[in-house]
């Protein structure tokens, strides 16, 4: 089944990270906001967008069962790898029947459904690689290994890139086939750029921020506390 003409949209949700920078006991995708795991919130957003046909969650090997228990029926769960790129690759292999892939971090749990729909709409209009982008507000500098400043890129040319990132499926498969294990890109679009293909930005959304640190978690919990009611099978989610 597909949501609309233009082919089947498969969303890959890398959720196999440890969350070292967050520093919780629980792997980050299982950490809860108002009683619901980030992983579940991200999947619910994708499903609620109305533009996604199938969701594949990529989870830590030892938590596959826990992930299945926390997710709606029909969501596929597969084992992740050491790096994010390995986890996304596992997702692609598990769902080869896509025409469009979205890749969406479990850690961007508050992403509005409207952003997901805008990425897919842009792909359906003929773009092959689409990423949400926000202007940066800090001045960004490059530094050497000792922390000495080596340059100050023009801020007007810089963007903070979010997910979901969307790709024509054939292009994404080609990008991952060409990807080198010893020089992994920090996002999926980076692999497409290396093929010389154009990646299009669309306006991102501040609510799609990546929950990376304790400060991010505090902000995310404050934002959800007043508005999110835990789903009946997800309240006080535990891992065993
Ligand atoms: N081997 C990995 C590493 C990361 N991810 C996922 O990729 C997303 C973005 O990564 P990040 O925010 O860096 O998560 P972690 O790798 O868990 O964080 P940290 O780097 O602080 O350990 C997260 O949803 C994370 O679960 C993944 O699926 N597999
Ligand atoms: C893909 C990403 O979310 C785009 O901003 C980001 O690059 C992931 O980086 P992380 O270090 O794996 O969190």
UniProtKB/TrEMBL annotation:
<dbReference type="InterPro" id="IPR001228">
    <property type="entry name" value="IspD"/>
</dbReference>
<keyword id="KW-0414">Isoprene biosynthesis</keyword>
<dbReference type="InterPro" id="IPR029044">
    <property type="entry name" value="Nucleotide-diphossugar_trans"/>
</dbReference>
<dbReference type="GO" id="GO:0019288">
    <property type="term" value="P:isopentenyl diphosphate biosynthetic process, methylerythritol 4-phosphate pathway"/>
</dbReference>
<protein>
    <recommendedName>
        <fullName>2-C-methyl-D-erythritol 4-phosphate cytidylyltransferase</fullName>
        <ecNumber>2.7.7.60</ecNumber>
    </recommendedName>
</protein>
<feature type="site" description="Positions MEP for the nucleophilic attack">
    <location>
        <position position="210"/>
    </location>
</feature>
<feature type="site" description="Transition state stabilizer">
    <location>
        <position position="21"/>
    </location>
</feature>
<dbReference type="Pfam" id="PF01128">
    <property type="entry name" value="IspD"/>
</dbReference>
<dbReference type="GO" id="GO:0050518">
    <property type="term" value="F:2-C-methyl-D-erythritol 4-phosphate cytidylyltransferase activity"/>
</dbReference>
<feature type="site" description="Positions MEP for the nucleophilic attack">
    <location>
        <position position="155"/>
    </location>
</feature>
<dbReference type="InterPro" id="IPR050088">
    <property type="entry name" value="IspD/TarI_cytidylyltransf_bact"/>
</dbReference>
<keyword id="KW-0548">Nucleotidyltransferase</keyword>
<comment type="similarity">
    <text>Belongs to the IspD/TarI cytidylyltransferase family. IspD subfamily.</text>
</comment>
<feature type="site" description="Transition state stabilizer">
    <location>
        <position position="28"/>
    </location>
</feature>
<keyword id="KW-0808">Transferase</keyword>
<comment type="pathway">
    <text>Isoprenoid biosynthesis; isopentenyl diphosphate biosynthesis via DXP pathway; isopentenyl diphosphate from 1-deoxy-D-xylulose 5-phosphate: step 2/6.</text>
</comment>
<comment type="function">
    <text>Catalyzes the formation of 4-diphosphocytidyl-2-C-methyl-D-erythritol from CTP and 2-C-methyl-D-erythritol 4-phosphate (MEP).</text>
</comment>
<dbReference type="InterPro" id="IPR034683">
    <property type="entry name" value="IspD/TarI"/>
</dbReference>
